[in-house]
Every structure is written in C-alpha cells, then in structure tokens.
Design goal:
7 helices, globular, four-stranded mixed beta sheet, alpha+beta
C-alpha cells in the first residue's frame, strides 16, 4: 500500500478556515504551528497536519501518537504504518504506506549549477549538464532533487546522509539508486502535473498508487462537522 495526497494551501490564507482547521489537528501539531514565526510557515505546517490526519483516517486510524527515529523522522507509535510529509511554497504532499516511505515536492525555480556540482554525484551533475536548454536543465535538476530528497527521507537518515554519497539514475523512465546505506532495494515514482512543481516518492514497495488524491481544505472542514 502506497497512497499519495497533495494539497494547494491558498485556501488556508482565509483566517476563519485556518482557525477552524487549527483545532482539528493534534495538540502536538498546534504547538509546532505556534512556534513558527511567519504566517506562510504556519499555513504549511497546518496543511501538513491536516493531510496526515486525513490520510490516516482513510485507513481507519483516527487516534495516533508519534514517536521519532534516531535522525528525527516521525513514526506512528505501535502501528505498522509509515508516512512522510513535504511542502514547498503553496503545495503540501503526504505519502502513507505499510513500508518505509519518503516523499518530496519542490517548486521549480532558477538553478545554480554550482549547487548541483557540489551536492549531486558526478553522474547526476552530468545528466543535468548534457540537457540542451536551460528549461530542460532546470527540469532535470528538480527531478533529481526531489528523487534524492525522497530517498533521504525513505531511509530515515534525512540530511544526516550526504547528498552526493548516493547516485540516482534515470534510464528510459526507469529510476534506480546506487547506495551503500543498507541492503534494501528502493523504488521510485514521479508525478508531474505541469503546475510548476516536481513531486517524487521513494519506498520499499514497487507498487505506487497512480491516482493521487488532491485534497481541498474546505472539503476537509465540511467532512469534520
């Protein structure tokens, strides 16, 4: 089971909707939101909390507690269910599975090839460099970026693992990773909606849900009342 959820956060700029949904999420999530300084960050955090709540509710988990791995990755306590959250600008993503999973969403923007040279492995850097146009270079950069982030999160190591210590390969739409993190085999999928963002998921199961669920926050509030 790999289920993917995506939401656009602009609805949450409405103060009344924000306030109502704020009281739907867990106390732990509310405390996290309260610690954030900027309104935009509060909105993203609330959106992530709502997506997690919905995704778990969909598989029958309405009450849950979180615990954290050695490198800070959250887990559902006493449940054989794994999840991951990601957000960028106005988009939030949630992946839920019965196996370890990681996801990443990134807004496409201008790139600095020096960043790719420093943080990507040599083969990844060459994949970007060989693209013929700036737009295609940008597209490949963010494809690799989201795939790498999703892998880091799926392993549970996060940014404690160097981003150039493993290498993503894309050959005829087949994605693989060369790594020495553990002896597990990781699988990837990508989603591209031509919306200015790139989305990627990495997990231990090769079976990904093709039908991503797009969640509206007003609809969520209506279903809770």
């Amino acid at each position: 089971m790999n289920k993917i959820y995506i939401s656009q956060t602009k609805e949450l700029t409405n103060d009344e909707l924000f306030r109502r949904l704020y009281y739907i999420v867990s106390e732990e999530r509310r405390k996290k939101i309260d610690k954030l300084v900027f309104r935009k960050d509060k909105i993203l955090s609330l959106a992530a909390g709502i997506l997690l709540k919905k995704s778990l509710s969909d598989i029958g988990i309405n009450e849950f507690c979180l615990e954290y791995g050695k490198y800070g990755k959250p887990y559902i306590k006493n449940k054989n269910i794994f999840f991951n959250l990601s957000h960028s600008e106005d988009m939030v993503m949630c992946a839920v599975s019965d196996m370890e999973i990681g996801c990443d969403v990134e807004k496409i923007s201008d790139i600095d090839m020096e960043i790719a040279k420093r943080f990507f492995c040599v083969n990844e850097y060459e994949m970007i460099k060989k693209e013929q146009s700036d737009e295609k270079k940008k597209d490949m950069f963010f494809r690799l970026w989201t795939l790498k982030e999703s892998f880091l999160k799926a392993t549970g190591y996060g940014m404690s693992l160097s981003t150039n210590s493993f290498c993503i390969s894309i050959e005829n739409k087949k994605i693989s990773v060369a790594h020495n993190v553990n002896d597990k085999k990781y699988y990837f999928t990508e989603y591209d909606y031509n919306d200015g963002y790139k989305y990627a998921v990495c997990g231990l199961s090769p079976y990904f849900d093709d039908s991503v669920e797009f969640v509206g926050f007003r609809a969520i509030y209506g279903s809770e009342h």
